[in-house]
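Task card 7
Instruction: Convert sequence to structure tokens.
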Amino acid sequence: MASKNVLELYNSGTITSDFRPPISYTGLNCALDCERQYFYYSIGTKIAFPIPVAFGDAVHYKFEEFWHKKYNLKKNENGNYVSSFAMTFPKYWDLVKRGETKTGSVFVKNEEKRDEEFKKYTGYGIYVLTNFHKINESLKKERKIKLKDILEKKGLDIKKLKNEEITKKSREFQLDSELGLFPKLEVPFKNIEFNGFYLRGEIDRIDNFGEGFVVIDYKSGYEPLPEKGKSETRDHQFTFYSLAVKHLFGKDPIAFFYWRLRADNLRDALDPRELDQSNFDYLKESLDNYKPLITTVNWSKDVLSDAKKLNKKRTIQEKKTEERVEKYIKKKTNDGIQTLLFGEQLEETIRENEIKKQKELEKTNEYHVNLAKHFLSPENFEKNLDKARCNHCFYNGICLTEDEKSFTNTTKEKLISYWENPPFADEKTIEDINLD
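Output:
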């Protein structure tokens, strides 16, 4: 499960046994797929994301706005739903196109058709957000009524408050978190101890329906979801999320769902999943198998990060030393040349003492720093040259040689055309919607 270079460092005794590396669901999936891919992912290699990934980030961002702002939903003369929430998408998607959001640069396979590709996803975004609005509108209204009742009992005159003010007051009283009136979105978690690792990540949505917590993961694409049954244990996503909910709220979730955002009704949107002990056993097995890889990479990153902080601290200390000496000399200027000489001697003494301390500290870490620098290099991590995986890997542009690119491109025509053509991007889908 690990290459020779990884095992050499892991078994060298350099890394202490109490070192616990962090791991996310996405990171573990990278490790399962390819050692080299996990390396690129872990060191934060900057890449331009393909349109489907950027689109997923965009709709997730817009969902956060839905619950705390007022939007209208009505049918037009053709019987199609029109959502004021959905019509906010084109403006934000244009920012994504220009690389002005947290997603950063966006990659399009055919740059000559960049505008055309982004326009297709504009239509799909409006479609997805309209469906989301339609499905969640009744839940939102129901929760708003409960919220107003609670605020009135607290002595507030609801009739005099605007919708935004009601939202602000609810946050002041922490009603949405305490009572679970609204879904919790983009819920982060970290430092959850499990099998010698610290689990971390982010959950798309958690609903509290009184009986317990329901975990939801949005799926904006057309790619197949993990199959149910035995093959489901291959996917660790909801296992991570189950442990996170237990850690955050003290209770196990009562249900797990994938939410297909392309569906226009709740029944088709929700795809339930179940967990049992086999899921947790398989997660332990996966972490054990890939522990050498995950541990060595994260240990090396920490060593270099600490060295960088140490150098920064050293620079600050040197600057403070210069300021102290300069201040002392100015204060004693009236004493003439003798004071100036003493000031120079003082400066030299202070510098010598601090340099001595710094060298002692650097001597301890120098071996580890050099080892980490040598280790964190792409050639130390093996590639898993699988045709389909390499074609869909974000890092194939910087990883594959020309020969390897030729090898993986042989199956290009057989791959899902999802990268170029989003689902529901035909003219019928965006009928009656003005995209200009």
